[in-house]
Amino acid sequence: MDSVLMLGFAGFLGLLKIVLMGLAAFGLVDALFRREDAFRAADKQSKPFWTIILALALIVSYLFSILSFLPVIGVIASIVYIVDVRPALRSLPGGGRTGRRGSSSDGPYGPYNGGR
């Protein structure tokens, strides 16, 4: 009976580890696709800072057991990025994304709608 409980607990911890790695990976990929100037415009830490922190969070969550304190720090960093930094970057014009251009009908002050 004890082995069944331990197996279930180990399975739960494995799923939790995958979820936490996914959280850090999502934050890292999102930070990589944001413009550097968007971080400054949103008055947040720099893009290299967040990419390093989120990459470390991903590596730590992969290497260490979830019961250790290092993955907990990585989870906190990932949550701070997703809850605080990402919405601030998305609120900027263009969403702070790299490679995003306006429509072909955009004028110098926004979209041209033909006088409608």
UniProtKB/TrEMBL annotation:
Highest taxon of the lineage: Bacteria
Keyword tags: Membrane, Transmembrane, Transmembrane helix
Stretches that traverse the bilayer: 6-29, 50-83
Region (Disordered) location: 89-116
InterPro entries cross-referenced by the UniProt entry: DUF2516 (IPR019662)
Keyword Transmembrane helix: yes
Protein name as annotated: Membrane protein
